[in-house]
Amino acid sequence: MPYVNELMGDLENFLHNEDIHVPALIRIGIAHYQFETIHPFLDGNGRIGRLLITLYLVSKKILQQPLLYLSVFFEKNKSLYYDNLTRVREKNDLIHWLKYFLTGVDETARQASNTLSEILKLKENVENTLRNTAGRRAHTALVLLSYLFKEPFIHVKQAEEICNLSTKAANGLVNLFVQQGILKEVSGKTRYRLFLFEPYLNLFK
Ligand SMILES: Nc1ncnc2c1ncn2[C@@H]1O[C@H](COP(=O)(O)OP(=O)(O)O)[C@@H](O)[C@H]1O
Ligand SMILES: [Mg+2]
C-alpha cells in the first residue's frame, strides 16, 4: 500500500531528523506510538514495535546490549497501554502516553538491574559452595557452573562433554550439584534425567 509506505517514510524521517532536538527516549516513545498507529503488518505489529524501541536505544548506544524487555510492563498494564495510545490518536494527547512509556522504561530498567545484581550474588555464593565442597573437582565444577549460566537445563551426557569427564565422574559431579541445591532433577525419569539450575531460573520469576 503506497499510503503505508509514505507513513513509514515519515516515521523513518522523524527517527533520523537531527533538526528536531528531543531526547532519544522521547523520540522513540513517539515513534513507537507512530509505528503502532500505522500498523504496517497484518500481525506482529506489537512485537516489532517493541523490538524497535530496544534496537533504537542500542543504535544510539544508550544500551550496550538489547536488554530492555518492555513487554512485561506493557502486558501488566495493558489497558492503560491501549488507552494511552488511543488518546494520542484521538485527542493528540502525547503527555499521558509518554509518561506511561517512561515509567515503563524506568521500572523495566530497574528490574533488570536488580536481577543482574542477584545473578552476580548467586554466582559468588555458588562458586564458594563449590570451592568448599568439590575438593579437587573444584575447577571442573566451575566449568560446569559457567555453562549452566548460559544453559540452565542439562543432561549428564552434556556435563560429560563440557567437562571432558567419564560418565561416572559426570554423574558424581551432577550429584554433588544436586546435593548442594544447585541442580534439581526435573524429568522424574530414571534414565536420561534432566537437571535444572533452579536457583538461577527463580531469579527471572
Ligand atoms: N489504540 C491503539 N492505537 C495504536 N496502537 C494500538 C492500539 N491498540 C493496540 N495497538 C497496538 O497493536 C498491537 C497489536 O497488534 P498485532 O499486529 O496483533 O501485534 P502482535 O501480534 O505482535 O501482538 C498492540 O501490541 C499495540 O501495540
Ligand atoms: Mg497479533
TrEMBL record:
Gene3D superfamilies: Fido-like domain (1.10.3290.10). Keywords: ATP-binding, Nucleotide-binding. Residues 1-103 form the Fido domain. It holds the Pfam family Fic. ATP binds at D43, G44, N45, G46, R47, I48, G49, R50. The active site is at H39. PROSITE patterns: FIDO (PS51459). The keyword Cytoplasm does not apply. GO terms for molecular function: ATP binding. It comes from the Bacteria. Transmembrane segments: none annotated. PANTHER family: FIDO DOMAIN-CONTAINING PROTEIN, FIDO DOMAIN-CONTAINING PROTEIN DDB_G0283145. This is Fido domain-containing protein. The lineage of its organism: Bacteria, Pseudomonadati, Planctomycetota, Candidatus Brocadiia, Candidatus Brocadiales.
